[in-house]
Amino acid sequence: MTIRHRIAALVATVAMAGGILAVAPSAAQAAPPTPTTGRSEVGIQLYCGYYDGTATVRRGSKGNAVREVQCILNYWQGRQILRVDGDFGSNTEHWVKEFQRGWRIKDDGIVGSDTWNFLRDGV
User: Per 3-state DSSP, what percentage of the chain is helix, strand, and coil (rounded to 5)?
Assistant: First the structure.
């Protein structure tokens, strides 16, 4: 399923649900959380519950912002391609570049404001 088809399916699902969903991950959770959706000024936004900012993260970064990126990338791929461990290594960099190429944005492997916007909003 293409990213654009996933967005259409996501929009339809949220429209049918008719509300804002928000879930924070549990420490005892065996599998990484699935992003939830909410409405913002720009439309639908994805959120896993690890981080809600837009700080730049890149290879070598660690922490909750990286976990958020990894979780959302798993969502966009429709399967778990990354372990959500908060360590921005070569595999995370590879999948960030793949995501960036898919949206035709600069494929530098760095998650800055443009990439965050596409990860969260798909636009």
Answer: 40, 10, 45
